[in-house]
């Protein structure tokens, strides 16, 4: 079957393309912006990508068009698809029918931590010899790709609550029908499609309704929004977990930065983990992944070994440079909660070293100004803050900068931002670039400029 994917450059649709190719289908696609790591993955998979959305890409007609959720009415290829009566479907629906059907699906849902937790879960299953398939919204270092079919019944999917397609406004994850569901947390986000938290909770409850009675829901135990959602009705056993001890499953930090912790059941220590990740949020992610893997038959001892060897995920506090004593991190954090926990973990690790936070407000929710009241506080662990103000943001970041005082600066030009950073950074600085996009390549630009400065002064 020839499958053509509209919007192939996103992490979900690009991963779907790789799964379709591995399953033996002829795959092509189109997008307007394509950059690494997805561009390189698609190239390596031998998938042809068309630039733009002109109708000619649908000649000759594919057997099926898979429509990404950023496609809208009025896009020429979409209009041609409809006018010609071509067979079309959404990405989540295609995944459900052609990949997930008949498999043991382990879905990871929540506002924060889905990519890291999905990667951890896939790594734990792989370590145990279960050869899982997976579709993850990032690139796990232990696999080097964001998707694979796998060689067993087990399939790990990052379960996103964003809407499915212009013709299907349900959340993506209602298509997946997991046997094991991991709920990390639940907060208000995606303000472009959800009017309030209650609307998101309803979608999460639709997901809960699909989990069978012989399945398992693993959930963060101290999350009030999850409590409210599950109170709407639950027909599946629930296994809660918390941090800092207590009844049931918990984790306790041994190192303040989260790089060492122990796993407990009813306050009885069962094992210890030392790993490369930082922060209480990642300890929570790890514990949830361990319990989900345990439901799939992985002994806790094997899971602990796997977590200790976990290589991390691209763009999750990923070190992208260490030049003249300045450490540069690329991080996907774009919600105040994620920003705060990331910086807290780095502060616990770096001690008195200066933390420089560089933020691009790129997500739809951020661009709508929903988080303007909490953004300043989320950056409080940083010693210096640079806020990038794109021309089309619609609200002024100077409101946030005013909260932070003299340590914050607002710049509306990437070249100027780069110059300001180079002029200020010094040895031992920990620099965190935070954006859910490419940030105009700024982390790598700053790395190159720092290297050039170091060479010229050597």
UniProtKB/TrEMBL annotation:
Q: What is this protein called?
A: UDP-N-acetylmuramate--L-alanyl-gamma-D-glutamyl-meso-2,6-diaminoheptandioate ligase
User: What is this organism's lineage?
Assistant: Bacteria, Pseudomonadati, Pseudomonadota, Gammaproteobacteria, Chromatiales
Report whether Protein biosynthesis shows up as a keyword of the record. no
Write out the GO MF terms.
ATP binding; UDP-N-acetylmuramate-L-alanyl-gamma-D-glutamyl-meso-2,6-diaminoheptanedioate ligase activity
Keyword terms, alphabetized: ATP-binding, Cell cycle, Cell division, Cell shape, Cell wall biogenesis/degradation, Ligase, Magnesium, Nucleotide-binding, Peptidoglycan synthesis
Pathway given for this chain reads: Cell wall biogenesis; peptidoglycan recycling
Show the catalytic activity: UDP-N-acetyl-alpha-D-muramate + L-alanyl-gamma-D-glutamyl-meso-2,6-diaminopimelate + ATP = UDP-N-acetyl-alpha-D-muramoyl-L-alanyl-gamma-D-glutamyl-meso-2,6-diaminopimelate + ADP + phosphate + H(+)
Q: Which residues bind ATP?
A: 110-116
Q: Where is the Mur ligase N-terminal catalytic domain?
A: 2-100
Q: Where is the Mur ligase central domain?
A: 108-293
Role, per record: Reutilizes the intact tripeptide L-alanyl-gamma-D-glutamyl-meso-diaminopimelate by linking it to UDP-N-acetylmuramate.
In terms of superkingdom, the source organism counts as Bacteria
This entry's Enzyme Commission designation comes to: 6.3.2.45
| PANTHER family cross-referenced by the UniProt entry | UDP-N-ACETYLMURAMATE--L-ALANINE LIGASE-RELATED, UDP-N-ACETYLMURAMATE--L-ALANYL-GAMMA-D-GLUTAMYL-MESO-2,6-DIAMINOHEPTANDIOATE LIGASE
Might you name a Gene Ontology BP term for this protein? peptidoglycan turnover
Q: Which organism is it from?
A: Acidihalobacter aeolianus
- Family under the similarity heading: Belongs to the MurCDEF family. Mpl subfamily.
Which cofactor(s) are needed, names only?
Mg(2+)
Describe the location of the Mur ligase C-terminal domain by residue ranges. Answer: 315-437
């Amino acid at each position: 079957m020839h499958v053509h994917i509209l919007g192939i450059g996103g992490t979900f649709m690009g991963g779907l393309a790789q799964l379709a190719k591995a399953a033996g289908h002829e795959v092509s696609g189109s997008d307007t912006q394509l950059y690494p790591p997805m561009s390189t993955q698609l190239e390596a998979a031998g998938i042809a990508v068309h630039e733009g959305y002109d109708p000619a890409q649908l000649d000759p007609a594919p057997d099926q068009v898979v429509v990404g959720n950023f496609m809208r009415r009025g896009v020429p290829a979409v209009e041609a698809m409809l006018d010609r009566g071509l067979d079309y479907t959404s990405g989540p629906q295609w995944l459900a029918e052609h990949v997930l059907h008949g498999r043991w699906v382990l879905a990871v849902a929540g506002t924060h931590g889905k990519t890291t937790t999905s990667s951890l879960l896939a790594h734990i299953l792989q370590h145990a010899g279960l050869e899982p398939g997976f579709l993850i919204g990032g690139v796990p270092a232990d696999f080097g790709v964001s998707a694979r079919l796998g060689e067993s019944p087990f399939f790990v999917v990052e379960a996103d609550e964003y809407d499915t397609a212009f013709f299907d406004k349900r959340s993506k994850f209602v298509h997946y029908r997991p046997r094991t569901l991991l709920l990390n947390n639940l907060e208000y986000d995606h303000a472009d499609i959800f009017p309030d938290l209650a609307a998101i909770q309803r979608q999460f409850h639709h997901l809960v309704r699909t989990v069978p009675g012989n399945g398992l829901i693993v959930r963060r135990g101290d999350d009030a929004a999850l409590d409210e959602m599950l109170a709407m009705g639950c027909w599946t056993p629930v296994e809660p977990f918390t941090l800092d001890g207590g009844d049931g499953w918990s984790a306790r930090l041994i190192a303040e930065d989260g790089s060492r912790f122990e796993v407990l059941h009813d306050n009885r220590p069962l094992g210890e983990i030392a790993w490369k990740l930082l922060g209480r949020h990642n300890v929570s992610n790890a514990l949830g992944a361990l319990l989900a893997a345990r439901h799939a038959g992985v002994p806790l001892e094997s899971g602990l070994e796997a977590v200790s060897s976990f290589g991390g995920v691209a763009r999750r506090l990923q070190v992208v440079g260490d030049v003249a004593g300045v450490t540069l991190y690329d991080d996907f954090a774009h919600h105040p909660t994620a920003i705060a926990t990331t910086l807290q973990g780095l502060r616990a690790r770096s001690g008195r070293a200066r933390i420089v936070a560089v933020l691009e407000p790129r997500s739809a929710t951020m661009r709508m100004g929903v988080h303007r009241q909490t953004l300043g506080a989320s950056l409080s662990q940083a010693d210096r803050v640079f806020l990038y103000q794109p021309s089309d943001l619609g609200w002024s970041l100077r409101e946030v900068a005013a909260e932070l005082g003299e340590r914050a600066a607002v710049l509306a030009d990437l070249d100027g931002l780069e110059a300001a950073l180079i002029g200020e950074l010094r040895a031992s600085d920990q620099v965190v670039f935070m954006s859910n996009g490419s940030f105009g390549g700024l982390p790598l630009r700053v790395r190159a400029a720092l290297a050039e400065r170091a060479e010229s002064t050597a």
